[in-house]
Amino acid sequence: MLNIEKIHAHCDIPCAVYDPYAAQYAALSVVRFFDLINEIKDSLDENESMAKFIRLVGQKEEHAQIVKDEIVTIWGDYFKAPQLEAFPESHELVHAIMIDASQCKQSLEKQHAMNLLEKVNKFSEIFWQSKDVPTETKIAPFAPSLPITCPVLKS
Q1: What percent of the chain has pLDDT over 70?
Q2: For the purposes of burial, counting CB atoms within 10 Å of the CB of 137, is it exposed (0-12), middle (13-18) or buried (19 or more)?
Q3: What single string gives the DSSP state of each residue in 70-89?
Q4: CA dist., res. 70 & res. 108, Å (int)
């Protein structure tokens, strides 16, 4: 009998089912967590506020890691020679996303999250361009109500 506790994977079979939306959602969440953290900073002397602060910081860090995981999966599994030749800036962009996500985990400065979202949106634009899918910028319908790059879907 196999004793397998936990498995996480994106298939390594070329399923062609990739979408950077999960990274965008996580990046938007990081921005939102910074907003919520900043709202309670002044009341951290109360136990309830401190508990909320700790949970928010944990979630901020978890969502920053989701960004890293999702971007690395697409970059490593989907981006092959044709995409890398067409978009040579993708290496530098992915590296910058990793740095910004780490800075989000390490600090309480919202600007890191804004930088992260901007770069994840750029990555999304490149991803969809590589599939010849046009994109548009929309405002997310939930807080923090910031722009996200979306594919133009066919009717």
Answers
A1: 90
A2: exposed
A3: HHHHIIIII--HHHHHH-TT
A4: 22
Q: pTM for the full model?
A: 0.89
Helix ranges restricted to H, the chain? 21-40, 47-73, 81-86, 90-106, 110-130
Among the listed residues 136, 134, 133, the one whose alpha carbon sits nearest the alpha carbon of residue 149: 136
SS3 152: coil
Residue 13 class from Cβ within 10 Å (0-12 exposed, 13-18 middle, 19+ buried)? exposed
Residue pair 147/139 in contact (Cβ under 8 Å)? The answer is yes
134: exposed, middle or buried (Cβ count in 10 Å: 0-12, 13-18, 19+)? exposed
Long-range contacts from 88-96, C-beta under 8 angstroms, 24+ separation:
89/126, 90/123, 90/126, 93/119, 93/122, 93/123, 93/126, 94/123
| Tally of CB atoms within 10 A around 112 | 22
Q: Residue 133, by phi and psi: left (phi above 0), alpha (psi -120 to 50) or beta? A: beta
Express each pLDDT in 42-95 by its tens digit: 777 777 888 899 999 999 999 999 999 999 999 999 999 999 999 999 999 999
